[in-house]
Amino acid sequence: MSGRRPVELAVEAVRYSVEGHTLLHGVDLAARPGETVGVVGPNGSGKTTLLRCVYGALRPTAGRVLLDGADAAGLGAKDRARRVAVVPQDAAGTFGLTVREVVAMGRSPHKRFWEQDGPDDVRRVAEALETVGAGDFADRPYDGLSGGERQRALVARALVQDPGLLALDEPTNHLDIRYQLEVLGLVRALPATALLVLHDLNLAASYCDRLYVLSGGRVAASGTPAQVLTEELLAEVYGVRTRVTTHPATAAPNIVYLPPGGHRAEGGGPGRAG
Amino acid sequence: MSRPRTPTAVVLLSAALLASAVAGLALGPVRIAPGQVLDIVLGGPGARTGAFASIVWDVRMPRVLLGAVVGAGLAVAGTVLQALVRNQLADPFLLGASSGASLGAVLVIVLGAGAAGTAGALGGIGALSVPAAAFAGSMGALVAVYAMARRGGTMTTGRLILAGVAVQYVLSALTSLVLVLAAHPDQIRSVLFWTLGGLGGARWDELALPATALLVGTALLTALARPLDLLLAGEEGARTLGLDTGLFRAAVFVLTSLVIGVLVAYSGAIGFVGLMVPHAARMAVGAGHRALLPVAALGGAVFLTLADLLARTAAAPEEIPVGVVTALVGGPFFLWMLRRSTRVEGVAG
């Protein structure tokens, strides 16, 4: 459904500080046109901050974000929204707008302020709703949906925005497994470049062309999933013991989490280093 | 995208507006049969036949029209303010805009009248200076409340309401101070009108400005329905959907203050219309502003026409200020909304 050219993204030495805390210490990241790039890392490692710098919600303290070689800081809100669509973690409190109305907001960057949606917009919205499996609840109030249904609606909103770059902040965290696979498959199939923050390393391994691992606001590793997702790196960054194999069906790295060492294993559960 | 219910709502509300206007023209110290009212109205202002023509045309009609205009404008302003602060408890009165407008108006009347030595009738001081001062006052109050309620990018309901109440208190105190220190005794009664809100001062030659403010304001804001909808996606959401939120918010604040200022200059501070009507209109036609704003305007016109009718007739021959009537209805409504909203916020964290 996208007629737009995929965008080439370059993040150059982006640093972000707020109130004396530095959340990003000079991050470099690149995504070639059409590539699906994942950002992973423990809680507080700066994933969402990096994503927000990319889509312009935060202005980097230093460094630049380039979209097709042009500094994104120089773009107006509308120009930027025509190139970059965002799937936030959640958006609540829409006063009872219907799902269809929320999705139709995605057409705004392509419209004059006073312009109404035309037949083409209505068709695109209907298509996107079907694509994410939201057709059934399209005319219900967005506020009343479950987390997963909202997330699918926000994906549909980004689809009708027809972007060259799609920025997704944990687009699957509320979804059940079927929709996780569908949404990630959809993102991969789009001609747009995609930058995703993901928690689930196995999903990241199967759906991303390349991964960046953030730790403490720095890039700890980057490369193909097979290069990046090693037992050593996961131990260092996440502080967990893992067994990484190549999955016979997908040829992607497959991570099995091992209980923390020693006989504290029973009480421990999967390790989640902050 | 308007929903199928919108045309129905518009037709029903137009009929209700017509009916309440006829009731407003028919009822009062002198009761006139509805049929006779229609005859008089359809006969036109020129054909002054029958004993009641003057009551209908000269006394009641300007008041009914002003009530409809002010009600519509306050409902539109309330709808837009609610989108601007993204909170359904916003209202021109509760956010201090009406008090700011009152202070502006009172200052000009008292000072202007003092200088000119007249009794301070609205039109006497230069037709535009009172609405202009009211506009400045309402703008100043809104900016103050917005700046106070918004800290670090978040705005909780509690802070918004408290900021509104605080600004409202300060402005009302200043208005009282001006009255006590500077007003002639004969001005106090006419100025008291602003603090309570009333439509008793309606005159044919003072309808053009509020009506223009309403029509132009509503038309412009309805044209901006798309970006107003985007505000509902939140600050960051609206920006990622292509809206320059800072610029747009500023423009809409100015436009809304203008509508509020001009209306308050003629009607005084009438509260809660801009709180209740948008809520009811959203229940009827949804939250999309293209349908919502016209429906809210019609609803506000009906509501204030009926409220003023009640204010004139309920305790006759005494007249209750219409702001008292709307507050008696709106206060409990506000508390009910507050209960609901804190419950929702509690769940959302």
TrEMBL record, chain A:
Keyword annotations from UniProtKB, A to Z: ATP-binding, Nucleotide-binding, Transport
Top-level taxon of the source organism: Bacteria
Transport among keywords: yes
InterPro entries on file: AAA+_ATPase, ABC_transporter-like_ATP-bd, ABC_transporter-like_CS, P-loop_NTPase
Residues of the ABC transporter domain: 9-241
Keyword ATP-binding: yes
One example GO MF annotation: ATP binding
PANTHER family: ABC TRANSPORTER ATP-BINDING PROTEIN (PTHR42794:SF2), HEMIN IMPORT ATP-BINDING PROTEIN HMUV (PTHR42794)
Entry protein name: Histidinol phosphatase
Organism of origin: Streptomyces roseus
Taxonomy of the source species: Bacteria, Bacillati, Actinomycetota, Actinomycetes, Kitasatosporales
TrEMBL record, chain B:
Membrane topology of the entry: Multi-pass membrane protein
UniProt xrefs under Pfam families: FecCD (PF01032)
GO cellular component term, pick one: plasma membrane
Keywords: Cell membrane, Membrane, Transmembrane, Transmembrane helix, Transport
GO biological process, one term: siderophore-iron import into cell
Main localization, broad class: membrane
GO terms, molecular function: transmembrane transporter activity
UniProt-listed Gene3D superfamilies: ABC transporter involved in vitamin B12 uptake, BtuC
Positions of transmembrane segments: 64-85, 92-115, 121-148, 160-183, 246-271, 291-311, 320-338
Localization of this protein: Cell membrane
InterPro entries: ABC_BtuC-like, ABC_transptr_permease_BtuC
Family statement: Belongs to the binding-protein-dependent transport system permease family. FecCD subfamily.
PANTHER family noted in UniProt: FERRIC ENTEROBACTIN TRANSPORT SYSTEM PERMEASE PROTEIN (PTHR30472), PERMEASE OF ABC TRANSPORTER-RELATED (PTHR30472:SF67)
Protein name: Iron ABC transporter
